[in-house]
Design a protein that fits this description.
alpha/beta, 123 residues, Rossmann fold, single chain
């Protein structure tokens, strides 16, 4: 079981991710924008799943700041759009330090596998 912080400005996405990850037994925290992620982040959090396009602070800046605070925290960038398309955003997120990237929409198995892989690497 991991402590996971989920950040997405869309309530439906947060609810979907909660239903997927709670069933796996993870301890979950939620944020609806980048500022909340940085406010709620603590050293007990194992993985941050963050949307790239969010209000107040975008996921790119969140990933960069989290890695400054704690190089060990694992991050998963998720994105479904934007002006340049999700693939370019996700590639950039990876260059900024994201440990994995997932393009929306995605199935539960993709997220669970990504988290399990990161937990194996980190633990």
């Amino acid at each position: 079981m991991a402590k996971i912080l989920i950040a997405d400005d869309e309530e439906k996405v947060r609810e979907l991710l909660e239903s997927i990850l709670a069933e796996e037994g993870h301890d979950l925290e939620f944020a609806k924008n980048g500022e909340e992620v940085l406010d709620k982040f603590d050293q007990e959090i194992d993985i941050v799943v963050t949307d790239i396009l969010m209000p107040e602070k975008e996921g790119m800046e969140v990933i960069r700041k989290l890695k400054e605070k704690n190089k060990q925290v694992k991050t998963i960038a998720i994105s479904g759009g934007g002006q340049i398309g999700p693939d370019r955003y996700l590639d950039l997120a990876e260059k900024l330090g994201a440990d994995d990237k997932i393009k929306k929409p995605f199935g539960p198995d993709k997220l669970i596998q990504s988290i399990n892989n990161l937990l194996e690497i980190g633990g």
